[in-house]
Records
---
Amino acid sequence: PPPLTEIAAKVAAANIPYQLVEERYNRVPEPVVLKLITWSFPRCEADIRRYTALAYATNELDVTFRKGVTLAESGAIRQPVQIGFHLSGIVHDKSGEGSNNSPCNFNVAVTFDRCKVASSTCNCQFGDGIFFCRHVVALLIYRIRNPRKVKLRAPISDTLQKLTRDQLQKLTQYLLSRHANVLPTAQEIADCFSDANSSINAVHGAPDPTAGAGFQDENRWNLDDRHVIDHIRQLILDSAKQASANQLFNLISKIREMMKRDCNGARLLTLLTEEILRQGPNIQWQHNDVCGKLWDQIGLLWICVVLNPRNDRDSKTKVLELLKSWSKDPQCPPEDSFSETITTNTSRGRTCFHELQLSLKCRTVLSRALDAGSLRWDDAHLKLILSPKRRKSGRFQGGFANFSSDGKPLWHESTPIACARVEALRSHGYANESVRLARAVARTIRENAISGFKLYQNSHQNQKDAAVPVKRNNGYGLVGHPLNPIHILFDTLTTAATNGGKPSFKTLHIFHFTLVSWELTFMYSQKLLRKEAFEVCLLGVGEQRCMPSNARAQEKVLFCEKMLIEQLESLTLDDELIQVLRDVTTLLIEGGPGSGLGKRVHRESVPIHSFANYLFKALLPYDRKLVFRMGLQAMRMTVLDDVAPAEMPPAEAAQEEQMPLVLPFTYPATWSVIGDLEARQYQLASTLLQTAIGEVMLLRLVVESVQRNMRNASHVFQLSHDAFKCATNQTGAVADSTMLNVALQLAMQVLRMTIQGGTWRRTEMVGWLVTCATEIGLCALTWYTLFTPVEASTMVAGCVISPNTAMRLNLDPREREELYHNVCQMAMQCAVKDPQSCALRSLTLCETYTSAFDAVYHVIVDSSNKRRIDSSQLFTIARYLDQRGLNSQAFTVAHAATRRLRVPFNHDAHPAANDLLWTTQLAQSLGMTELEELVLVIVNKVRCASVLSDVLRTCTSSISGRMPNGTYGNRGLRADRVPLRPLLEASMAAYVNTIHSKLSHISPRHYTEFIGFLNKARETFLLAPDGHSQFGRLLANLKTIYKGKKKLLNLVASRFG
């Protein structure tokens, strides 16, 4: 063992300034001085590493330290010498700053005190003023690893005391001759000696840069505030860049690590907070997601600072005053929706959380840290929990048991603030105490879950009793809380389990007594700690909780749940953990309103599909029945349910009255994360579906659950594809008919969900259902619940009657005929449901099925009479019938279309003009009766002179009318006789009205066009026996009425006389 002198020197060098040693003892032997100086140098390479970069967990940010170590190991350190508390040396860097990247020598100097670097200098350009450059790292590592290779000397003041006057004069003159640049300074000091009133003569002694720190000097590692602020400012201004954002979060990790070792953690946190508030106006923080995450971390760290067990009253008061000033800053963001505050119960001498009574607008992200100022560490039961020697001081605490049934301590405080205590202990280096408190909190969570389960079971069995409310932390649960309580507990316990064999020698000065911990860092077995961490994480994630209204808080809830599940997946499950998993799953399924997997949950509670998916996969090899029960129960997403309490069946309504709900309030379901939740629901459904392959009853339950709970048609569509792949991926085997039927059922569900529209993938979905149906074979489908009439009469019918389908299904002629008849029946129904869109397609489908064709035709006629088909579609149908030689039916439909028509007086280019001409030819080919009927309708429906005259000329032309044999013949009719006489009179009247209408607002540029219109009118008038005289009277009337338009009348006279 080392001698007592060595041990004493190590302890004194780490805790006592050298000035105190000098003043306490008149004479200190030189060997003792050298030992103190030797052990005052930093001893741990991790401390050096911590001050080389913002973070050292990743290789990218650890490059400076690794380069420094490489230099130290490669013999790059030259002339190392330690004079008192000053270390200097030359570092030969082959990748230096010389020309052409030639090697350079860098002068490095370091001062230190009490195992901390107080300052460092290097003439390179790599240092940023905040952390060590690689040359400083190299010298420090070299000194730690090779202390005997470094020349060791006492402080220079001790050496000077041993010199005579002549030696001191010679030393001074040699220094001045070798360093002539300091001659002015030397002369200035010499002049001060000659002045009796100078400050040098008034002070005893002289400064010694190698003598270490004094009484008033801070005992901390060197950190330059100015450089730190500049660095933080640049990171904040560039926070939109991912690299800068990552460095900000690395800085948070650095602060957390520093808090365990020295006071620079709180100091760096202060600089960061002040600079963020100062730069607030320069950045649109509300649009920067980095801000929210950063403020969450800052708020938690300040809680840890406030709860530092080492803090005295004055230090704590200063911190709280600083937090109050920051909270009043307009740039300090408001607190999110996880709202609690802290009050102190003076009668019990302990603290607890209560629901926030003040408005959220009055609180900021730092309010929780201010609330933590009322928390104390002097509670008797808390001291008992943190002490390694436990004594039962009292059975109950505030109405709750202080100890569990097996005699282990509990801590009945709001879980988030209790976990904040755990984090504070851990952040300040009290690892053992943080584990003890974490275990007590985890044990309390477990006891509350079990007691809540028992209360629910008792109230559920005795329905006459009033519902008993279940104790809870708050409506929002623990996952996603800004203080991350479950993550703190899990991380504390698993870290303790991993590092359970490392000893700790920390001295604890928290309470009225002092404990020197020579025990192992964590005295509980690794398995027990892992079990408790695993259990508390399961209970926390499985807790029923309300979705916050704030969009960022919603995203954080899902992110935290994802992170916790990843932590659960990182654990290797042994038999003990499997049993815990089974017990917790059963507890959650039967746990009532406190559980997110219970039988009934609040409509606004957060779905926990990802957690259920984890439980399902982890427990599947051990309890298949339990996991399927849990998975099917977890498929729900109640926020999308449309069932109101008034619409519930009586039995369910009675059960609802007996159900004590965790969340007593609701708000409109404006969830910004609904897409992520639906994706997680799909993942769970896919897992259930693929696991249930081969089990008909389970598959039926899964399909029913999907149909009942999933509202995203795209995800159900994808599930159908998954089922189809599972059915057909069996190489060399016949397709699984059960899974094919599942795929068909899900495809049908998709079409039911989207039959009213709402997705651009509808066409793809219809095609997919037809694919599934043809893969299975002949099956009966109620088409109108799945397809629109247009889809049924086009895509579905066309695919069903295609030759490829018949070949794929190996249909014989009789089966083909039966299938075709069914398609025709569907076509008839489509025509009835949507004649406008489906009538023509239905006629096409039923071409070879006479009875069905006639039925569709009668549907068209009936629909035209009821005005369910517009005229353009009727004309199209009529042309189709005419092409098939059904002239009479074609005329009937065209006649109905004409009755639906309206052509105003000035619509010369009406789209139905050609249809009217064609209909007139068709009527003329059938006979005078049909033509007379049509003329009467045209006269009644058409007011346009041009259209009327065109129809009239069609009937009177020498080659006009379509003959019954399909050819055109000479059947021109006289316009002044029946049946064209009404048409001629209507045409002439229309021209007269149109001429007067045009002249009422005609302009000179339209005169030429008007003369052409008059010419066409004259041609129509001339079809009448007295048409010439009638047209002359019309012109005379125009000259009388419009005599002011002399230019126009001159044009008319010159053209028509």
Note: The longest strand covers residues 104-113.
---
Amino acid sequence: MLCQGGKKGKKAAGEKGKGGKGAGRLNGHHQENGMENMMLFEVVKLGRSAMQSVVDDWIESYKHDRDVALLDLINFFIQCSGCKGVVSGEMFRNMQNSEIIRRMTEEFDEDSGDYPLTIAGPQWKKFKSSFCEFISVLVRQCQYSIIYDEYMMDTVISLLTGLSDSQVRAFRHTSTLAAMKLMTALVNVALNLSINMDNTQRQYEAERNKAVPKRANDRLELLLQKRKELQENQDEIENMMNAIFKGVFVHRYRDSIAEIRAICIEEIGVWMKLYSDAFLNDSYLKYVGWTMHDKQGEVRLKCLTALQGLYYNRELNARLELFTSRFKDRIVSMTLDKEYDVAVQAIKLLTLVLNSTDEVLTPEDCESVYHLVYSAHRPVAIAAGEFLFKKLFSQREPEEEGAPKRRGRQSPNANLIKTTVFFFLESELHEHAAYLVDSLWECGAELLKDWECMISLLLDEPLPGEEALTDRQETALIEIMLCTVRQAAECHPPVGRGTGKRVMTAKEKKTQLDDRTRMTELFAVALPPLLAKYAVDAEKVTNLLQLPQFFDLEIYTTGRLEKHLESLLRQIREIVEKHTDTEVLEACSKTYHALCNEEFTIFNRVDIARSQLLDELVDKFNRLLEDFLQEGEDADEDDAYQVLSTLKRITAFHNAHDLSGWDLFTSNFKLLNTGIENGDMPEQIVIHSLQCTHYVILWHLAKLSEGSSRKDDLVTLRKQMRAFCMMCQRYLTNVNTAVKEQAFTILCDLLLIFSHQMVSGGREHLEPLVYSPEDSLQSELLSFILNHVFIDQDDDTNSTDGQQDDEAVKIEALHKRRNLLAAYCKLIIYCVVEMKTGADIFKQYMRYYNDYGDIIKETMSKTRQIDKIQCAKTLILSLQQLFNEMLSELGHGFDRSSSAFCGIKELARRFSLTFGLDQVKTRDAIAMLHKDGIEFAFKDPSPQGEGGPPLNLAFLDILSEFSSKLMRQDKRTVHMYLERFMTFQMALQREDCWLPLISYRNSLQAGGDDDTMSVMSGYSSRGSSIRSKKTKPPAATAGTSAESSSSSEVWQQTMQTPVMMPSPHLTSTAIRDPKRGRDDSYMGVYPIPHDQQQPHQHPQHHQQTPQHHQTPMDYNRRGTGLMEEDEEPIVEDVMMSSEGRMDDLNEGMDFDTMDIDLPPSKNRRERSELKPDYFDPASIMDESVSSISTLRFV
């Protein structure tokens, strides 16, 4: 039996004699045993495969002198914990375990928190696995005799239990791992004993049932004796397991360290899987269920993997029914876990639950997993795809043996493909078909690549009694079919899912080639009739026309499919003639581009067809345009429509094809010029003419960039480009908004393309083409942005019928405005326009943060990389503009608590945060910002006459937001520069109107001793937000002083002749605004809370106070807290709020592990009327479970 109270097991009475023989060895333990112990630790450390022989040697040593051998084992565990102390023979004989552990704690190396289980590096890579293997082999080799001697196991378990309760993390972690692996090894022993007992019982029953003459009484007695011995051994093993479970697991599964909690949960899963008869019951399952609410993803992950091992075995399903009903909702909620690994395993667990029984999961539970097939995280989506496939597609129609294989719409896949279409339509995420296909690809590739069946469903007539696909279903099927073709041809996930292309294996490459060959053979024949059937449906045709992009075009020649190619070209030509939709025309253009590949023999045939089509289109356009311009105001709508439709087709083809052979610039420029002169040109004609002319110039530039260019070509392009830019500038004042937006976008693109950067990369010959916008053009572009981008949402949206349509229009309008702003910001970033124009953009940062905050912030970041000082001047200029606008609106006597002024202060605070924490990199920029701000504050005299504050003095309150970014020496310099603008009377003023000056001076003087203090934004719109203090940087070295001298040239005259003495810190309550919460001693800085200072005031008392390192868990929360960004490592438990509550829970507790009788739950109000809850965490609360906090080692 194990000894209670943490004592080692007593030696038997007859073992004193051995002590005399081993006394000398124990006394000389450090000398004689040191090498043996080192060898034991080193073997485990190196991870050698000689573990069996090492354990056998230790067993021989134990049989010779068990005290010496156990001492070796004890020191082995101590050393594995990273402790350099050694337990001597005298300590082993005379001291209790608690005293030994206390002594080892004192000898622990406090300089490093690392220990073998946490040390990184190749030397310690296999330590954990070798350590666990050693314990497993040790128990396995001792399972027939030594573990039953009531000494060896008692001593080891007692030691590990004591170490697992230590305040030192290394002891606790190592001993918990050892104890859990020891328990696992004992579970294996108990399982073997159980099997042997069953066999013995069977043999006994068989022998006893024999006839009396044939019955062997001696054998019956031997079997009875053997069964008795096995029963006694099993009782001993159960006692050992109880001791480990109650002494270690019950405490450590809620340890403050996540790794320790994870070890416990991982091992209890192993026990339940190995020895389900003993452990797979609610008394043990409850620990896994509770811990699924752990705040650390690592622990939650172990819970799920432990449960997967149980649900995988269908024979265990009956024992999991209560657990499943109790914790199913929690598992379902974990599919949305913030840790993707946890979400993946939760979905896989639900898939196993689905396999075991189809009745547990409700339709609502399944739907919560279904939508995850559209997740951007690919592992989550693939796991959800497997769940979906198991649920919806696992029931196939069985095929009769010997019957011919059914193909097309009669194949078994036909109904499954229809089911996929129905699911896609019901999910209402029609634009995510590629995500759905990718999610199902790994588990259902065979189904998704049954293109023959899909083609049959689209082309063939339905069978008798079969319901035909609706138009909407056919559209969805074509989209899914296109996505499957793309996935098979490209072999990588769709955009937005996946981390880039990976290297394919030889098998994957062969599969890819086979799939491309098969799809080309199928669709080369089927695509022309599909296009013919759906020729009038723009959406279907657009998707079908993308299929040739993934063909192996060589198949057209090798497979003798030229007639199908001719048929395809005829269908495309007819579609171009029928449609004017831009998407359809661009799809036709891309298809021609894919087929016009000079590497293949079909090039000439396709090129001829393309040229014939374009000749007809251009001739028709020139003829129609001439008639249209001649008619002028007399032109009717039909003439305009003919011009527009032809222009649309030419523009769509010009996007992908070089049409330089047809002089389109002259005709389009003439059309645009006529539109400017007459002012009545239809807007769509102007928009497409602008786009077509833009393509003409880009194709011309592309040809000049590729090789040697003639001077005449450069001159021609230069004239065309500048004339077109002037034309776009004139269209910026057009009455039609769509025309203005098109002209603005094209103008920004041209200015960026033809900027000074076009000559980089060895293209100096293009320098004559460089074009810099004039000031008037820059001003017009900026005005366009201010008038068309920074507007209220309602001003730019046309109301439509239906709230959903109206919302879609608003989103589309916002997307368009974001593109316009991004186009202009690129001009700022690439220095096409002056950086100071960005001030009008930056000042909108707060007001339009939700719409354009990311674009403006990225622009600020890029401009700072280009020129830090100029960027800072632009930021302060934007604040000055806002301040002037506020003055013109509110007047000079405005209230500094007004929303307008608070908004400017908040904007300044946001600007300050963008400078980051590295003050050395930004010191010049920050210094220049303060210089401009001070000059602006004192620029205009007081409107009240002499003696009053300057007009812009309140701007210093805004400027103080940047004081925290100044280095210490720069604060003094800025303060001296400020005093150049101050008079002696200003320093004596104490009225409210002078508070900005006082606040700003204090923010500069507070940094004389600590340059890291920031001035609090008392009127900040964020209200009660508290800014965290930064650590004080090291004192400036000679190097930094040298840098400061270079950055302070602006104030070098000030450094010589300060005008006045620095004013003292002001502590009068009359000038302190209670709303700001300022402390007297910190001058505008938040004081340190008293409770934060307390631990540092009494360090001795802090160490002597009884500490607790366990943490309670909040088992009552379900599925909400885990989805939040909470970085606390420990979970909380509402039941641990009072000691009295715990004492009540302690009374009447029964700790019989093998048969735990749990009390009903009394702490969940929502379950007060239900049956007793057998998974209530109150069932394990007692004093031994209360938390012990750790020392520095935690």
Note: DSSP finds 48 helices and no strands in the chain.
